[in-house]
Write a structure and sequence with these properties.
The chain starts with a strand and ends with a helix. The chain is elongated, with a radius of gyration of 21 Å. Strand 2 and strand 3 form a beta hairpin. Helix 1 packs parallel to helix 2 and helix 8 crosses helix 12. Strands 4-5-9-8-7-10-11-14-12 form a nine-stranded mixed β-sheet, with helices on both faces. A three-stranded antiparallel β-sheet has the order 1-3-2. A two-stranded antiparallel ribbon has the order 6-13. It contains twelve helices and 14 strands. It folds into two domains: about 260 residues, Rossmann fold; about 70 residues, Helicase, Ruva Protein, domain 3. By secondary structure, it is α/β, with parallel strands linked by helices.
């Protein structure tokens, strides 16, 4: 988890990055990162293997461009880096995670290593995913001799977490996600939930409020429904801006997500479920009826084949006048089942 600044995030567009930096991400912080910029070849000098220990650094070409290597690292505004340097917050995160000597832990965004130091000490194996190549030398210098430490220079948005933790089949994850791409990374993590059992994440406080918003809350959105379907959520505590350097303008919150062994609702086509939810939240001021009527062409045709939006909603026992934020996960599933 790095100690960096966090980046804003959009409800669920995906962006590349992987540090725990920025309020962006950080030393438990989070790391913001830059715009996705395709076509960057990874610098071979950042794929390292320390033959004196089991620690490794592997690299895969990120869609965003990591800053060019420099002798002295400064927090990057472009990456939204704000490093977590508050020892009490770091201790609280470790207490929430409680890493064990018999398990593998993934850390997204180790940053300068504030959280990493305690993870290396307590976890059986630690796989750290760092995007910023400028931070790699310092991390290797501090932790490269630890036999349970693996460092991967990569973008969390494209990293295959299940492959990186091998020979382990499952892992828990800790991260301080950049504000502007946190929902994108969260979506990526949910996609790879087959090898993840639990996540302890630091996010912008407003994002945590959206994630945990129940049906009927004005904060509820697409992200709320997706996370509810796949995870049990628990907000743990808030983190003040002063815990980071540079100091961000917003508060953060730490949340625990326990991955469900199977989705909370059953439908035949989960891809269709997320199309329906996405269409339902497309224009928040409109009713679910009007949003389904103006859904993307493919979904709109499917609704028409089943009698139209009014008939579909009646079959699902959902009032036509309701808005998307009032619907429960079970009601979204019934709408989907009506057009499967």
């Amino acid at each position: 988890m790095k100690d960096e600044g966090r980046r804003g995030d959009g409800e669920m567009g995906r962006r590349g990055d992987g540090e725990t930096r920025g309020r962006g991400d950080s030393e438990t912080g989070r790391r913001g990162d830059g715009e996705t910029q395709p076509g960057e070849a990874d610098d071979p000098s950042h794929s390292h293997f320390n033959s004196a220990a089991a620690s490794t650094v592997s690299a895969s070409p990120p869609p965003r461009i990591s800053p060019s290597p420099s002798l002295r690292h400064h927090p990057s505004k472009r990456l939204g880096q704000n490093f977590l340097n508050d020892s009490r917050t770091i201790d609280r995160i470790i207490q929430a995670l409680r890493p064990r000597s018999d398990e593998t832990i993934i850390e997204i965004g180790p940053g300068r290593g504030a959280l990493t130091a305690q993870l290396v000490e307590h976890a059986g194996a630690l796989v750290a995913i760092e995007f910023d190549r400028n931070l790699i030398p310092g991390l290797l210098e501090r932790f490269g001799s630890s036999r349970n430490f693996k460092l991967v220079q990569s973008d969390a948005l494209i990293t295959d977490f299940c492959s990186e933790i091998k020979p382990a089949s499952h892992a828990r994850l800790v991260a301080n996600l950049p504000y502007n791409i946190s929902t994108a990374i969260l979506q990526r993590l949910i996609e790879q939930r087959s090898c993840l059992t639990e996540m302890v994440l630091m996010l912008q406080r407003e994002v945590v409020e959206r994630i945990t918003a129940p049906a009927g809350s004005t904060d509820r959105g697409y992200l709320s429904v997706v996370v509810e379907a796949h995870c049990e959520t628990e907000k743990l505590f808030d983190v003040a801006p002063g815990a980071f350097r540079p100091i961000p303008k917003v508060w953060s919150s730490v949340i625990r997500l326990k991955v469900r062994p199977s989705p909370a609702v059953t439908v035949k086509d989960y891809a269709l479920l997320w199309q329906v939810v996405s269409a339902g939240f497309a224009q928040r001021r409109k009713t679910i009826l009007n949003n389904l009527r103006s859904a993307p062409p493919g979904l709109q045709e499917l609704v028409k084949l089943h009698g139209g939006a009014s008939i579909v909603l009646c079959q699902a026992e959902v009032d036509l006048r309701r808005r998307a934020e009032t619907l429960t996960l079970e009601e979204w599933a019934r709408i989907t089942q009506a057009i499967e």
